[in-house]
């Protein structure tokens, strides 16, 4: 029995041709790799060739073989179905519900036998689940379930009952998922119908040739449950692919059903371009509806897959941006910009002396905190000596997080104290109001940052006594109220997080301490939940704040030997470049 089980667990493997997914170490997959850097989609992958059941195998070996074979998506799980009795209904399909385990179950136990009937128990450590729409959610707990088996008239054991009421789910190990699935981005529109928002999913790969078709079909199916209601799609209801995505000489043809005639050609093109650019074999593509080529405005019949940059989730990213685009509080105590490595004051008077200043993306106003973080101030313009106005005053025992701006000029800030928090939102020209629905009301929040797409928000919240990085979504209700919630952890690798900022639409820059470290250090944390990476080398003193922006160097506000300093890497393009701290200043920030 032991020898057969090991054979099944190992299986037979051949090389295929797509990249593998990474099961998040923490929470929910909210977005995958940035489309232009989705290198793992095209990485080689190991394909499982499942083994059929053998007549001499007992109940435990049959269950072990079934679990191993179910990791292969070939031919609609044909081999795995041979482990079932003819009467057993089980049809996972191409988008199954998956329970992800830390490792493969290799030692099922026969806990009951009665003649031609048997019950087999399987146990393991569950990491999380992947729903049929591809959304991963962490749910660490123990797995303890049973399979029912019976002998057929031919005298061989077959599965007659699946765990619980599951008629189509899979029990896969983390390694199985990373081999058989890909983390890919689908792109949908923010409520402004201009900015795209990435929606990362786990997508099973049957074979590399069908991946373009699977990807477009997933896009047409709409956002996952996590983003549903927070984003929009340009594709009219019931729009489908008339045939598979055809690729010839780097040019893909996407032929949509007649329902697409009711959609906006330009917005549909933007969604398709950003989604398909993850596949290296596609350089240009052609949009057809009912077999007829349609042409988007200012485009040719075949459009570049890297078009529609104006819809980027990060907005327009300046070329060659340097640390001099950042704002700091200089040694004089006033808000300034960096000229070389020197802080040049641009705002004087009381308005220039705010703590944790944040400049609006359009540079029309700025916000900051009082020295005790118990008041939020706003002021305009971002020059001269403007008079700051008190926007909010905290309750007794509470304080505010650093202000955060979204690209539409809305100001966001969290009021918090032990085990409580409230989200305040101030659209430009209006008063600040509490968000009607705030998912972290029972938590202390240490940092809050809205993504540039305006639909996602990253926080550091105190969970079970430890600061944890989480990401939530922002949904607008029909009555205009906000629902900011569904916060889930991004990674379990980092503990004692101090501050964070959005590096780009896929990555957070976080100050925190990894489990192996004794000091607070800067890390890049992919929203996909993939492994975090450390930044730079050298001493940083006591890092307190971090600033980041697409294409710009990461800046760290630190205190060393009693002095406030702003640090940057000597060569920002090199993640291993040493940190240097040439600027006497604090609280660095970027206006976007």
From TrEMBL:
<dbReference type="InterPro" id="IPR019606">
    <property type="entry name" value="GerMN"/>
</dbReference>
<dbReference type="InterPro" id="IPR018910">
    <property type="entry name" value="LpqB_C"/>
</dbReference>
<feature type="domain" description="GerMN">
    <location>
        <begin position="212"/>
        <end position="298"/>
    </location>
</feature>
<dbReference type="Pfam" id="PF25976">
    <property type="entry name" value="LpqB_N"/>
</dbReference>
<dbReference type="InterPro" id="IPR059026">
    <property type="entry name" value="LpqB_N"/>
</dbReference>
<protein>
    <recommendedName>
        <fullName>GerMN domain-containing protein</fullName>
    </recommendedName>
</protein>
<dbReference type="Pfam" id="PF10646">
    <property type="entry name" value="Germane"/>
</dbReference>
<dbReference type="Pfam" id="PF10647">
    <property type="entry name" value="Gmad1"/>
</dbReference>
<dbReference type="InterPro" id="IPR011042">
    <property type="entry name" value="6-blade_b-propeller_TolB-like"/>
</dbReference>
């Amino acid at each position: 029995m032991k020898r057969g089980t090991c054979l099944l667990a190992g299986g037979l493997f051949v090389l295929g041709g797509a990249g593998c997914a990474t099961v998040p170490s923490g929470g929910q997959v909210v977005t995958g790799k940035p489309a232009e850097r989705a290198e793992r989609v095209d990485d080689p992958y190991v394909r499982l060739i499942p083994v059929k059941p053998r007549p001499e195998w007992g109940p435990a070996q049959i269950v072990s073989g079934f679990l191993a074979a179910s990791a292969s998506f070939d031919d609609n799980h044909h081999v795995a179905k041979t482990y079932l009795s003819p009467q057993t209904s089980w049809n996972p399909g191409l988008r199954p519900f998956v329970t992800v385990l830390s490792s493969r179950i290799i030692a099922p136990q026969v806990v009951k036998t009665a003649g031609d009937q048997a019950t087999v128990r399987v146990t393991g450590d569950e990491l999380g689940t992947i729903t049929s729409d591809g959304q991963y959610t962490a749910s660490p707990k123990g797995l303890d379930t049973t399979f029912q088996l019976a002998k057929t008239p031919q005298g061989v054991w077959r599965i007659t009952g699946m765990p619980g009421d599951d008629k189509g789910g899979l029990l896969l190990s983390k390694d199985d998922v990373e081999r058989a699935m890909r983390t890919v981005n689908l792109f949908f529109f923010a409520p402004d119908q201009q900015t795209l928002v990435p929606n990362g999913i786990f997508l099973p790969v049957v074979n590399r040739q069908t991946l373009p078709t699977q990807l477009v079909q997933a896009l047409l199916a709409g956002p996952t449950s996590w983003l549903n209601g927070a984003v929009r799609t340009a594709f009219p209801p019931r729009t489908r692919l008339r045939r598979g995505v055809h690729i010839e000489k780097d040019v893909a043809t996407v032929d949509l059903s007649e329902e697409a005639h009711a959609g906006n050609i330009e917005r549909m093109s933007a969604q398709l371009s950003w989604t398909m650019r993850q596949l290296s074999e596609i350089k240009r593509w052609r949009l057809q509806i009912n077999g007829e080529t349609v042409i988007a405005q200012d485009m040719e019949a075949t459009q570049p897959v890297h078009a529609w940059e104006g819809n980027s989730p990060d907005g327009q990213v300046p070329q060659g941006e340097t640390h001099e685009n950042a704002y700091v509080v200089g040694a004089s105590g006033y808000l300034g910009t960096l000229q070389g490595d020197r802080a040049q004051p641009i705002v004087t008077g009381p308005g220039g002396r705010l703590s944790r200043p944040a400049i609006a993306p359009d540079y029309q106003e700025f916000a900051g905190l009082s020295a005790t973080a118990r008041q939020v101030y706003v002021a305009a313009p971002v020059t001269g000596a403007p008079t700051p106005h008190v926007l909010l005053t905290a309750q007794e025992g509470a304080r505010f997080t650093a202000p955060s701006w979204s690209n539409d000029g809305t100001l966001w800030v969290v009021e918090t104290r032990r085990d409580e928090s409230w989200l305040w939102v101030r659209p430009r020209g209006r008063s600040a109001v509490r968000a009607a629905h705030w998912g972290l009301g029972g938590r202390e929040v240490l940092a809050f940052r809205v993504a540039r797409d305006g639909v996602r928000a990253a926080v550091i919240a105190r969970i079970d006594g430890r600061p944890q990085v989480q990401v939530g979504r922002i949904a607008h209700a029909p009555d205009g109220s906000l629902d900011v919630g569904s916060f889930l952890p991004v990674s379990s690798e980092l503990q004692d997080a101090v501050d964070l900022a959005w590096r780009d639409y896929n990555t957070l820059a976080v100050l925190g301490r990894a489990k192996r470290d004794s000091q607070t250090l800067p890390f890049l944390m992919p929203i996909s939940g993939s492994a975090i990476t450390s930044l730079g080398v050298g001493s940083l003193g006591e890092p307190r704040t971090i600033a980041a922006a697409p294409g710009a160097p990461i800046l760290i506000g630190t205190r060393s030997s009693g002095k406030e300093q702003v640090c940057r890497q000597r060569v920002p393009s090199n993640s291993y470049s040493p940190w240097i701290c040439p600027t006497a200043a604090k609280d660095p920030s970027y206006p976007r």
